[in-house]
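Open question from group meeting: does this chain pack into something compact, or does most of it stay loose? Before anyone orders reagents, we agreed to write out a predicted structure and look at it together. Recording both the input and the output here so the notebook holds the full record.
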Amino acid sequence: MKLVLASNNAGKLAELQALFAPLGVELVRQSELGVGEAEEPFRTFVENALAKARHAAAITGLPAIADDAGLCVDAFGGLPGVDTAYYATQFGYEKGDANNVRALLEQMATLDNRRAALVSTLVALRSADDPEPLIAVGRAPGEITRERIGDNGFGFDPVMFLPQFGKTFAQLPTDVKNANSHRGQAARAMLALMRERWLSP
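Structure tokens returned:
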């Protein structure tokens, strides 16, 4: 089965391709099919993921899958949430992972409550008009470190400390990260839904 991935993020594509390979699902990045970015006007991950998946499915005619993910910081009332990708721009920095991490560490410098969670919401549609989207959520709770630690991964991985491992996501081997990450959890839940709803005889 071929699905269009409603994202142009290479890191996301690589992670999700590895996770979906066992189902025989081939993910094609939307940019390879001439699909531009969808509007994401909503304040929740699920609404934005649904908008992205509908956009990609409508243009390509293919089933689509979209991920909306972000960092939810306890001390900030769950923000930056859906604005995670643009977090640094609120503080005068250019958009980008390194600047997002820099801005977060600066904003949390005086805070003792370091609790946060990386959240991923995956939405899959058989068509743009599918009335029953598959929705899977993954959540990886942890604490924000006071400095970057580790060289693997992307996004907030170097500052997301996981107490159960005593390490940040950026210190974990890829297979361990994928097994425990918010995106890994959401992808496994999505695989189960696809098997049950789309692929069972």
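Observations to bring back to the group:
The longest helix spans residues 182-199.
Strands lie at 2-5, 26-29, 64-73, 115-125, 134-144, 160-162, 167-168.
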